[in-house]
Amino acid sequence: MIDAPDSEARESITRAAVRLFAKNGVETTMRDIVEEAGISLGAINYHFGSKLGLAYEVYEDVAWQACEQRRLAYEALEVESGSKPVPADKIFRALIKPYLEGDEDRRKLLIYILQQQRLAKLKLARDLGIKHFDQIARKTIEMLRRSYPHLTARDVAWRYNLALAAVVWVVSDCGPDNRLKLISDGEADASDRDQLMTYTIDFIVGAFERGSDI
Predict the structure, then answer these.
(1) pTM to 2 decimal places
(2) Which one is the CATH code of 1-49: 3.90.550.10, 3.30.1490.100, 1.10.10.60, 1.20.120.430?
(3) In this predicted model, what pLDDT tens digit does every residue of 59-116 receive, in sequence order?
(4) Which fold has domain 59-209?
(5) Where are the chain's structural domains?
(6) Pairwise CA distance, residues 72 & 123, whole Å
């Protein structure tokens, strides 16, 4: 075990926790984190209090950064569009980017958090959903309502929710051996980020451009 200054120890623990939580979720043990970080159990308890305290801090940082990235992107899009609605393809590109870019472990952990939030299996994920994701969801729906005034509030809410489900599904399996590549005999490949983004956005925008039949 290493005896590092507080800032270095905290960073080592956080990096190890992100990697392991992204890989194993809540099944990650304190022993796993200790071995991965090369830090004593006492150091983890000193900095975070418990595994739950560590998980909450790591999960919240990942969730906050993704939502902040979207918030800033939305602000830039609204400035760019001026008095006009922001095109839906740009809204969804900004929404999807955190699931596809940046550090791979943080990307995977972000997807895990969202899955757990939607499956209602992890209270921590539900809490973060209320604190961070729900605010961005409301902003996204607000922007989409401006982009599609022919749709009712209910139409937009449903289509946003279904669109997000599609996004989470596809970004959850976009590694080199993704199932889409397998079942299409290589014709479609979710590991190709440009291909994934293009087809996903085209699918979602098509759903929003359709009129209301209900």
Answers:
(1) 0.83
(2) 1.10.10.60
(3) 889 889 999 999 999 999 999 999 999 999 999 999 999 999 888 899 888 888 877 7
(4) Tetracycline Repressor; domain 2 (1.10.357)
(5) 1-49, 59-209
(6) 28
